[in-house]
Here is the input.
Amino acid sequence: MTVCPNLRKFEQAMYYNVSQQLKEGVGSHRTYILDETVRYDDPADDSTVEGVLDSLYTGRSILVTGELAMGVSDVCSRCLEKFTEHLRIDIEEEFFPMRDINTGAALGLPEDVEDGFRIDERFTLDLYEAVRQAIIMALPMSPLCRPDCQGLCPECGSNLNLGNCNCSRSPVDVRWNALRSLLDNPEQRDRNGTTG
Ligand SMILES: [Zn+2]
Ligand SMILES: [Zn+2]
Here is the structure.
C-alpha cells in the first residue's frame, strides 16, 4: 500500500498522476490521505476536508472509493447567518484513461458508460471535479445552522435565536381575526352571549 505524500493545496492536491499505477497493471492501488484546509478569499470561509480514498486500477478504469468529511461554509436559509455545514461524502467514481499507458493509443469510454470522468493525456486524474460535484449533491437545498433555528422576525428582522423581539407575532391568517377578537375581548363575548 502506497500513501501518496505529494499533497499541496486542496485543488492541486486533488490532481494525481496515475501513470505509474497504470504501468503496474490491473489490481495496482494507491491510498490517498486527505487532510487539507480549503482557503477562500475570506478566511472566515475556510473549510477543511479530510478522509482516506482508495484507488484501484481495474483494467478499464481507476476506481476511487472512500469517505470524506468536510466543513463547508454555508448560509442558513432561516436566519441568514453564516455557519459551517459538516458533510460526509461517499466517493465511488471511475476514471477512464484517454490513452493506453503502454502504446499511447487513444482510448474511448466503454460502451456502458455515457459520461465518465477522464484521466487526461498526461495521465492526471482530476479528483477535484468529482469531489466538487459530490459536495454540491450533498449540500442541503435549505441549509439550517441548527435544526431548531428560530429564523428572523418577519416584522423587525431581528435574529430570534438571539432572543425575542418586541413585535407581537400573531397569526396572519385573517380568517381567524374575528374569532380572535372575541377571545381577546371577554366582555364583548359575554355581551354577545347574554344578548343572543
Ligand atoms: Zn439559522
Ligand atoms: Zn420583531
Remarks:
- The chain has five helices and seven strands.
- The pocket of zinc ion (ligand 2) is lined by residues 153, 155-156, 158, 165, 167 (CB under 6 Å).
- The beta strands are 15-17, 29-38, 47-57, 62-75, 82-97, 117-119, 124-126.
